[in-house]
Specification:
The protein is of the alpha/beta class and 344 residues long. The protein is 39% helix and 18% strand. The strands form 3 sheets. A 7-stranded parallel sheet has the order 3-2-1-4-5-6-10, sandwiched between helices. The longest helix has 21 residues, at 86-106. The two termini are 36 Å apart. It binds nicotinamide-adenine-dinucleotide. Nicotinamide-adenine-dinucleotide (NAD) is lined by residues 7, 9-13, 31-35, 53-55, 73-75, 77, 92, 96, 115, 117, 167, 169-170, 176, 178, 181, 322. Residues 3-237 form the NAD-dependent epimerase/dehydratase domain.
């Protein structure tokens, strides 16, 4: 297939592109490249691309590419970024996504894979939540995911099959590393300070999934017949991979060794607390086989941080924390308040 991957230069996208190519898909990227200075000792992914903001894409841009599918990853990718200015999250993650889907549909693209998030479940009870569970988003980020899914669903018809991949929280090595997601963060803390520092009281539940298992899930949706995925939501992750944050900390301390588990100064209960059921994706996409566990991911990160020389200064800097990098770029005048690049 010929596939447009938006956000292909981000944490998930830069690992997804090689996975798609290995399956003989032709990939064209689209990214405004907010995090061009944020590589972690790796060659950036190299793909033909449209250097565009999703808010500005036109039907002409996409029609010229003769695409079979769009994988839409580009977004402000976490809660702290959405707290910076909630309106920006609605502009990019909600309105930008709906705009992209509309132009894709008009350009004749038949399949649209949206990178949604389990965070739209927000606050769950003790039971694991399946795709029919109620939405309780607790941030603009989570709410934007709900509203995009609803808008895309209204666009579904014989010519256009949207699919909503509700990823668990990702972990694992990527050439565009993020250290602002829980597993990667705890390992970086341990590697640079000898302490595993929890920012919550450690009790919340989180579903977790490796970046490469997310890439395989998107590839499996591309392989599936349209009737199996048309207007469907899939929780993306693996049974048995729901953890309390405290358990993740214990795994990190065990793998890194000689680490004390402690609580940060602002540690408090976290309102995002949910366990997720992954039965549907395994039942429907029979070729999908997630391979990673959190323990293996922690081992991978620990080895990478040691060999790549993750220092306390690097960890404290902007390169691997999305909010800090956006703040740095804004303060330097490289982009405006609307996160569009300033004229050179
Ligand atoms: N990483 C996770 O744990 C996780 C979990 C669930 C869902 N997701 C979703 O997956 C997607 C990718 O996440 P990620 O971790 O790779 O994020 P990321 O921040 O590493 O990458 C996002 C990419 O999108 C690009 N981008 C952002 N706004 C853009 C715009 N307006 N126009 C064009 N490009 C733009 C950025 O330059 C960046 O390359 C996001 O939609 C995110 O919400 C991520």
């Amino acid at each position: 297939m010929r596939i447009l991957v938006t956000g292909h230069l981000g944490y998930l996208g830069s690992e997804m592109v090689p996975v798609l190519r290995a399956r003989d898909h032709e990939v064209i990227g689209l990214d405004t490249d907010f995090y061009g200075s944020c590589d972690f000792h790796a060659v950036p992914v190299d793909a033909p691309m449209l250097p565009l903001d999703v808010r500005d894409v036109t039907v002409t841009d996409l029609a010229a590419l003769d695409l079979d599918a769009v994988i839409h990853l580009a977004a402000l990718s976490n809660d702290p970024l959405s707290d910076l200015d909630p309106q920006l999250t609605y502009d990019i993650n909600l309105d930008g996504s709906v705009h992209l889907a509309e132009v894709a549909k008009q350009a004749g693209v038949r399949r649209f894979l949206f990178s949604s998030s389990c965070s739209l479940y927000g606050k769950g009870g003790d039971a694991a939540l399946d795709e029919n569970a109620a939405f309780h988003p607790v941030t603009p980020y989570g709410e934007s995911k709900v509203r995009v899914e609803q808008a895309l669903s209204a666009m579904a018809d014989d010519t256009f099959s949207p699919v909503y991949l509700r990823n668990a929280t990702a972990y694992g090595l990527s050439r565009r590393l993020r250290a602002d997601i829980v597993v990667n963060n705890l390992v970086a803390h341990a590697a640079t300070s000898g302490k595993v520092l929890l920012e919550s009281d450690g009790t919340p539940w989180r579903p977790l999934v490796h970046v490469l298992d997310i890439a395989d899930a998107f590839a499996a949706v591309l392989d599936a017949p349209a009737e199996a995925i048309h207007d469907q939501a899939f929780n993306v992750g693996r049974s048995g991979e729901n953890y309390q944050v405290r358990e993740i900390a214990d795994i990190v301390a065990d793998v890194v060794g000689d680490c004390a588990v402690g609580f940060g100064v602002n540690a408090s209960p976290d309102i995002r607390d949910y366990q997720v059921d992954f039965t549907k994706i395994h039942r429907t996409l029979t070729g999908y086989r997630p391979r990673w566990t959190v323990r293996r991911g922690v081992e991978q990160l620990w080895a990478a941080y040691r060999h790549g020389g993750m220092t306390a200064d690097m960890f404290a800097g902007p390169a691997y924390v999305r909010l800090r990098e956006i703040q740095r770029l804004r303060a330097a005048g490289a982009m405006g308040a609307d996160l569009r690049w300033s004229a050179a």
